[in-house]
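The aim of this short unit is practical: by the end, you should be able to scan a pair of folded records and say something sensible about each. We start with the first protein, listed as its amino acid sequence and then its structure tokens.
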Amino acid sequence: MKPKVAFICVHNSCRSQMAEALSKLFESDVFEAYSAGTELRDTINQDAVRIIKDLYKVDMNKEHKSKLLKDIPSVDIVVKMGCNVVCPFLPAKHIEDWGLEDPTGKSDEEFIKTAKNIEKKVKDLAKRIKNKEIEL
């Protein structure tokens, strides 16, 4: 059975959504991806949507919406995106913090950098899961 991974941050509108989209695109054979936050947003970050569409041809507006922690199933791995405020807590067998800066309100260049960084980290996470480097 594939492990379930939750990407969490406060608003679940930008970085965690990008991580969920890229996980589903690249690593759906390794783990199931979810994203959630502690506060809902009416829409997910449209700059993130545009950049992910440009770079990866994935339309997050179709399948993604802001979700609360209670809206997702229980998970095996929690990845905190990086919060300067109190990070949400979700119980899991493995928890890590990627410490990513929030690109909201910044240039496309920052969004692209964040997306590429998330892609790299998602692939690394999948590799660690495959190599049993993460105890589940």
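Turning to the second protein, read its sequence before its tokens, just as you did above.
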Amino acid sequence: MLLNSFLNGYAFWLLLGFALLISEFFIPGLVAVFFGVGALTVGLLTLMGVIDSLALQLLCFGVISLVALFGLRRHCTRWLRGGVGGRAKTDLDDVGVVGSRVSVLTDFLDGTGDVQLNGAKWDAESDEPLRTGETAWVIAINGIVLRVSTSRPDRSI
């Protein structure tokens, strides 16, 4: 009798709702939270006396949970994960260094060496033989490696 009144009462639905909301922190998938919202809603409706029979409580729980799951999940997923804009397939000059002048710090051996740009040391590569102390220009950037040349690139491209 006591178990039946507990299962039919608002306390069960509120406890189930909070348990489902908390479970989302431990097993994230953005599913349990909507069933938790459904259980909390049924618990509140039962507490206010709007719903009283167990069959109606179960029906409302199922309908509210599924409507929330299928209706809001896509919007909430986008909100929780954030949006990422499409990036171009080519390497972009995100930091604005293409066309910048650099100082050669080490002689380029086998096409690689070190340069200084804005006070920071960068790994660089070049098809031209560069010597310490010379000036070069950044013509491209590939990850954290600068591509440099002794001729200044055209910035109008």
